[in-house]
Amino acid sequence: MSAQTLAEKMISKNHMGINIASVTIGVGILTFPRSLAKATGAFDGWISVVISGLCACLVGWLLAKLAARFPRQTFFEYSSIIVSKPIAYILTLLVCIYTMLFVSFEIRAIGNIAKQYLFYNTPVEMITLSFLLIVQYSVVGSRIAMLRLNLLFLPVVLVVMFVVLLFTTQLFEIENIRPFFSSDWRSLLEGSRVVGLSYSGFEIILFYTMLMKQPQEGAKAVALGLSIPILLYMTIYMFAIGVFSAEVATNLTYPTIELAKEVEIPGGFFERVESIFFTIWIMTIFNTCAMWLDITVLNLSSMFHKVHKTIWVLILSPMIYFVAMLPQNLVDFFTFADNITYFGMIVVYLCPILLLLIAFIRGVKGHE
Amino acid sequence: MNRQLTAFCIFLLLSTLLAGCWDQVQIEERGFVVGVAIDKPRTNEAEQQAKQEAPDKPQVKERFLVTHQFVVPGGLISGGQGSGGGQNTANEAYLNLISEGDSLFEISRELATRTSRTPFYQHMKILIVSEDISRTKNGFARALDFYLRDPDSRRSSKVFISNGLAKEVLEVKPKTEKLPAIYVNSIGENVNKNSRMLPEVRLGDVHEELLSSYSFVVPRIRAEKQEVKLAGSAVFTHDNQLIGFLGEEETEGLNFLTGKVKGGMVKGKFKNNLVSMNIQGIKHGIKADLRDQQHMKFTINIECEGTLAESYATIDSLNNTAMGKLEQVFAEEIERMSNDTVKKVHKQMKVDVIKLGSYLKQHHFSLWKKIRQDWETGQHLYEKSEITVQAKVYLRNIGAINRTERQNNR
């Protein structure tokens, strides 16, 4: 086939990196300065961001190696080659549950935050539902087209974030960031654990490598994809501490939103910068959500060939919506989020690494 | 047929989803709050009445009397056009609503029964808390909780402590501005002209101080009939209770001690004649001798740069020795003011508003971790420390002239 249509095009290394960055930047970006400041109690939290990011890179590298061993094969296919079909079924189903829960979490986060800051009277159910409908729409269409939206949105997101941070420099107080290197290694490790929750997302490399032109470049894509969130988180954390001080950051529900609210463009020409911030943040959540839902559908279709993609979306959506409505309050919601991530650590980090080990020992390899 | 039915269903679904907005609020219906003043109620009349209406209501210790200042957009239009509105005969650009209750949220919601425009806090510029409330235990923090917690309000509102009733500040009738709150807000921005004013303290800064273990200061404001005076500062202890005020000159001294002088003037006496300097910049440094923890020694170095603004002494100011003497005069004055402040906050009030604790935390963290509990409380190491001030002045310019009149006998 010489003339490829958009839907059949493969994705490049850089595109994959941007997908990873888009999926990683999500809800965590709003809350992580709070938990990180609580864990480290100082400016040094940025070290935790780096440590945690490097760990994520390492895991991502291993996952990319696994996926690159089996080019053009889905997760279900290569795991059934490595460890028999029945186990592959179980594993893939667990992955599906994980990704589905993740979608639930993201859409509920949209609901919660939009209600708190934007729509005071609109019910959370309604906000969440309308968002889910749009996500469905994007997933039902062409996969590559959906992934291309990342290329469109991420630069906007980064530019707006940069502008927000730029205008907070006038509130930055050097007293807040001193002393440097005052936290002990234990609190730094605790901080890394906490911020690690905000890095989940790069595991999409396991599933999307099959779409890549050159699957061997997966590891590089992970490094590129993670370097953007690492830098972004580091700057946001530094600014959050510089503007608020660690004590205050610990006591803000969404420090990053408050940071955007603090922005005042001189001259009183434009006062509410946070409205732009919300817009771009909802764009990133949209990308994150669409990719997670797409991966759920991808994995389900790889197991059950006969069912059409649209049907899967229609079956999954009510379940996702129902789960999203389960957390009763903010504390429940945050616990829910943490539990999903811990579950994910087993299912999409630990298990695939074991798979890689087995594949390596048994010498199983895919074929082009 | 089937296709048409689907289209119809989608149409129905979309029209329910897209039509109507739960949160539609027209801009005319918003009551923009620009200033809030929080007082303690003078009488307990309202409390008695509330008790009669609901005798089983839980008793509370504190009650607040809150004045909200709303913008009346019609009044902002200058000239006679505004008077066409009818209801606003005085053509005032603002409306003050005073309400009383146990909680600030309650008061805010109570206003909904009295005004057509419900309060909207996103543009709140100033927040004034009265001295009475700040003097009660936790009173200051309680008065601010609502404004910090409400996602609508901003952390950039300026906070003041009123010497006297807070609502009087919102009741002044300034000649230059239409809105008293905006008037106060603009005065707060004049810090680079006068060093007797504390630099603005934002709601976010107050939150930081309330959470930290240091003492802190908040600008003081006093209302007079047609104007307010924004000078001096209110001093809070580390447990966030107001213990006293610093006067104008003491505040100036404090600004020198913390290096927060942005501009202003220093007067001095040169051969019994008055000279004054326009401050243009200041450098500030702290040196600490921490060998004896029971008796720490701090030296605060102040380097001040400025120009000669006024001189009643007929001196040849284009002369290096004369300049040197002038610099000496101003430096002594700065030292005197700073020492007066140190005397008051260090020996009398015993609060660390010079932020030496913060300095120790920033530069000697390992030591600070050990003595954190014993700084202002416990062993009271702050009280036992010794503070000296050294000032140096650089007079860069003498202004447009050398002398106004001829020197005597020459």
TrEMBL record, chain A:
Pfam families reported in the protein's UniProt record: Spore_permease
One annotated Gene Ontology cellular component of this protein: membrane
InterPro entries the record matches: Spore_GerAB (IPR004761)
Statement: the UniProt record of this protein carries the keyword Transmembrane helix: yes
Main subcellular localisation: membrane
Subcellular location: Membrane
Membrane topology: Multi-pass membrane protein
Domain of life, source organism: Bacteria
TM segment ranges: 16-33, 45-66, 87-105, 117-139, 151-172, 192-211, 223-246, 276-298, 310-328, 340-361
Keyword terms, alphabetized: Germination, Membrane, Transmembrane, Transmembrane helix, Transport
GO biological process terms on file: spore germination
Similarity-based family: Belongs to the amino acid-polyamine-organocation (APC) superfamily. Spore germination protein (SGP) (TC 2.A.3.9) family.
UniProt name for this protein: Spore gernimation protein
TrEMBL record, chain B:
Domain of life: Bacteria
Localisation per UniProt entry: Membrane
GO BP field: spore germination
Coiled coil, from the record: none
InterPro entries associated with the record: GerAC_N (IPR057336), Spore_GerAC-like (IPR008844), Spore_GerAC-like_C (IPR046953), Spore_GerAC_C_sf (IPR038501)
GO annotations of cellular component type: membrane
Keywords, sorted A to Z: Germination, Lipoprotein, Membrane, Palmitate, Signal
Bilayer topology annotation: Lipid-anchor
Name of protein: Ger(X)C family spore germination protein
Lineage: Bacteria, Bacillati, Bacillota, Bacilli, Bacillales
